[in-house]
Amino acid sequence: MTEPDPPPQSALPIAPISAIDPDLPSLAYRGHDLATLVGRVGFQDVWALLVDGRTGSALPPAEPFPLPVRTGDARVDVQSALAQLAPVWAFRPMLDLDAARLRQDLARASVMALSFVAQSARGDDLPAVPQREVMLAPTTAERFLVRWRGEADPAHARALDACWVAVAEHGISPSTRAARLMAGTGADAAACLAGAVAATSGPLAAGAAARAFALVTEADRTGDPAGVVAHALTRGPLMGFGHPSYRGRDPRATLLHAECARIGAPLLEAAEAVEAAGTAALAERGVPYTANVMFWAGILLDAAGVAPRMFTAMYSCGRGAGWSAHLLAAHAELLARTGRDGTSGGAPTVG
């Protein structure tokens, strides 16, 4: 008796977009433990893993599209530029699209977000890097660096890959919730991504990375991490510490800490001292928090030559993968709710 042929890959069951175990603690993307991805797999392949449930259909190179508005703030620049893709590229409301077309729109917009951040970082006082030079770089992280700096340091490209992979997805976070809420209205892909970028800007979201980094630089300057932490606690919450999803240390922080140690990040010792001081100070208050992913992302980005003013925009570059996966899931729900998937259904407004 012969074995039946395996089902085509498209017919295989797809694991949930992400799974969090608060007790281990651990995080998995589509059934793949994050520890097997960070530092080992490029961001372009993780984007495909989250969106398609498998690698092999990586992000395409960004198309030529000059940054339309420069404000001096990379997060604002990318948020504004994403919204402007819709009329230029004729993005239609996702209510009117099938899944294949929506995935195409999301891939084009996601990689353009990286291009817009790179262009914003390069500034307007330098000529744009020719597209043909950008296209010679083999990976998404390297193309980002070439578009920004004109060259890609391999160590910096690996650091960006590690950071983007670590922050690519984390369930229904506030920014992901914002994207899905917009998808529920049938909005286009670029509008949903722009809304998600806006939701990252607060100091209790991706904005925490720059504030946590400031603690580390101050501790490095003064040589007094305990004093820096004590002063910070008199002013409010200790930024970059704790995450409600985990009872132990944020596993993403563990992985990024290891990457910082591997490359010898300039502020590694100061960051470790601040984490130790912060953990001790919070424990005295009965709060079992340690440094989280935003804390260590800032240290790794600094090692890659990324300024703190860009941290929030860089987070958005990575989280675009998870947003895209959730927007495709929300699109399926939208079509089912409105009967566009072939079932009976109404189309109630949500405004």
UniProtKB/TrEMBL annotation:
GO CC terms in record: cytosol
GO molecular function (one): citrate synthase activity
Domain of life: Bacteria
EC number of the protein: 2.3.3.16
Cleavable signal peptide: none
One Pfam family it belongs to: Citrate_synt
Biological pathway: Carbohydrate metabolism; tricarboxylic acid cycle
GO biological process per UniProt: carbohydrate metabolic process; tricarboxylic acid cycle
Protein name as annotated: citrate synthase (unknown stereospecificity)
Organism: Beutenbergia cavernae (strain ATCC BAA-8 / DSM 12333 / CCUG 43141 / JCM 11478 / NBRC 16432 / NCIMB 13614 / HKI 0122)
Source species taxonomy: Bacteria, Bacillati, Actinomycetota, Actinomycetes, Micrococcales
